[in-house]
């Protein structure tokens, strides 16, 4: 087997294992939402399987070892960018959900205060009405 093919297969398997570990850690630390972790976990498992099972033949005919190295660097940059975006979107989704819950609680508290104010105003009107009647 060509050295470049071995290098590519090892790279895909190692990247898949790394992504799987980072996905589990991100889920444990709640840095990423479950949906994103599920997608990243599936992607990493597929990468591991592809790296183990696929055997590209004649790859060295089309791409040199330096070309494979450049492709690996590009893949790392793209995966890092996608990971960063996934993490940031997850953080924003969690913050948005937390703010929605806080607004809901504030609205409920506001309703209770408004009811209390209406009750007090009604009591005040009733006492004024009684005072005028007497």
Automatic annotation (TrEMBL):
Keyword Transmembrane annotated: yes
Keyword terms: Coiled coil, Membrane, Transmembrane, Transmembrane helix
Positions in coiled-coil regions: 96-130
Keyword Membrane applies: yes
Domain of life: Bacteria
Segments traversing the membrane: 6-25, 37-55, 67-85
Protein name: DUF2304 domain-containing protein
Protein's organism: Roseburia porci
């Amino acid at each position: 087997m060509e050295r470049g093919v071995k290098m590519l297969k090892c790279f895909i398997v190692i990247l898949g294992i790394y992504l799987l570990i980072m996905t589990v850690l991100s889920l444990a630390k709640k840095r990423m939402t479950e949906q994103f972790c599920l997608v990243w976990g599936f992607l990493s498992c597929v990468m591991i399987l592809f790296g183990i099972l696929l055997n590209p033949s004649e790859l060295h005919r089309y791409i040199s070892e330096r070309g494979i190295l450049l492709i690996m660097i590009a893949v790392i940059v793209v995966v890092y960018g996608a990971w960063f975006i996934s993490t940031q979107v997850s953080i924003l989704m969690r913050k948005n959900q937390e703010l929605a819950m806080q607004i809901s609680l504030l609205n409920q508290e506001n309703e209770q205060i408004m009811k209390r104010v209406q009750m007090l105003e009604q009591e005040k009107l009733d006492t004024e009405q009684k005072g005028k009647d007497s």
